[in-house]
Each structure stands twice: as structure tokens, then as C-alpha cells.
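Limitations

Structures in this collection are predictions, not experimental determinations, and the ligand pose is part of the prediction. Treat each record accordingly. The example that follows, with calcium ion as the small molecule, is included so readers can see exactly what is and is not provided: the inputs are given verbatim, and the output is the predicted complex.
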Amino acid sequence: MTFYKKLLFLICLLLIVSCKNKTKKIVVEQKKVNQKVNHQLNAVQEATDVILVDGQANETTWKNTKWLPINQVWLGNPVDSTDFNGRYKLSWSKEALYVLVEINDDLLRDTFQNPLERWWDEDCVEIFIDEDNSGGDHQFNHNAFAYHIDTKGNVVDIIAENTPKLFNDHVQSKMVISGENTYRWEFKISLFSDDFEYGKPNQKVALSVNKKIGFAIAYCDNDNSEHRENFIGSVAVEGNDKDRGWIDANIFGTIELED
Ligand SMILES: [Ca+2]
Ligand SMILES: [Ca+2]
Ligand SMILES: [Ca+2]
Ligand SMILES: [Ca+2]
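Predicted complex:
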């Protein structure tokens, strides 16, 4: 090979390598952007009156807000409407996110006296919050929260492996019986960022217009069994394992706050 041929070969090689690196960089940047896919985007209107967390839906805000379904079976067999039927409404103020939930459940089960004992195996509402809509793993950290709220208002999430803790100061709630086998739950949820540290002073995040939050809601239904019979959520989850909300914030929907 002549000197010029060798030089040409070297230049070509350099060009190929540099081109490859550029492609890699673009792919990495693309991945970062697509980390959280907003596969269920819902606009949420600001509250027009003060929402009292009393399990009553007589606020003007609730009257003017549309119901959204809780109808995706994440665990167990398909459900019929006598076994379970659920729907929810959302609103917000600078202070908090508000959720109104209506559940039809043929048998309300409250088995455990200790709220930290198998909290998922008795009837409870589970609310998933990812304050910055980042998506990603949150199993043993506070990148997002999976609040399990029982019929008495105890709020449980895990902070590390086998370490459940009460988060009653994050979620205020009230459940009332509103008809035969119908239960109305009202929630006021304070938001905390990824920097949250359990047991330390943490600042609540103030909410504002255009803010995007990762959100999902689900119901653990147990009527007669040792373990929960169903887990029904508000978002469709891809793949066979749909019980991923307590681990992976990517499966949450996204809500956008509007005035
Ligand atoms: Ca109310
Ligand atoms: Ca049921
Ligand atoms: Ca997050
Ligand atoms: Ca039940």
C-alpha cells in the first residue's frame, strides 16, 4: 500500500469512528427524552371552591369535573360490576392534589388491625404519584410514591426492602358509605420531590399551572380470600406482569394541571 493509500484508509477509518460516536450520542439523548412516555395524558382543572375532605362530593368543583375509569385488571381474573366497579375525579390547588373516588365492592374487607401488616391483602385504594413525572424505578427510593390507603385512612409505602412506613401526613382521606356496596373516598395529597428523605423535615411542593405529574390510581379488592383477589388500575400496562406500579413509575399516566 502506498503512503497516500494508507493515509486515505486512515482518514476513512477516522470518519467512520466519529460518525458512529455521533449516532451513539444521539441515541442516548433520544433515550433520555423518551424515558417517560405520556401514554395517558389527562388535563386536570384547578378547584373553584375549597374542597373539604369529608367523603361528601357536594363541592362545585366535583360537580363540574368528569369521571375517569378504574378498569384495567392488573391482577386476578376479569371482574364484573357487582364484584368491582370504580371511577375517580381529579382536581388541584396550590396546596395539594385532590381525588374523589367511587367504588362499588360487594364485600368491604378490613382484616388487619396493624396497618403495616400485608396492607395490600385487604381492600384499599392505591394512589401513585411521581411529582416531576420523571418515570423510572421507585421501589426502594422516593423518585415516586405508591400510597396504599386503607378504609381507616392509614397510608403505607415502603422506604426500603421489607420496610413499610406510615405516610399519614402525605395523604388526608375520608371514606363514607354512599349506597348499597358503594363507597366514596375523598383524598387530599401533598406532593414531595425526589429529594424526599423519610424522618427528616421535607418541604411540600407547591402546585402550579402547566405542571406535569405522574399519576395512577388502583384498588386492591379482596372479598373472601387469604390474598387479594384483584388489583384494578386506571392505566393500561403492557406485558404479562401488570403489577409494576409499586416498582416502575414509567407505567403511570401523566396529568397536566390547568386553570
Ligand atoms: Ca368534600
Ligand atoms: Ca369485590
Ligand atoms: Ca420522580
Ligand atoms: Ca372487597
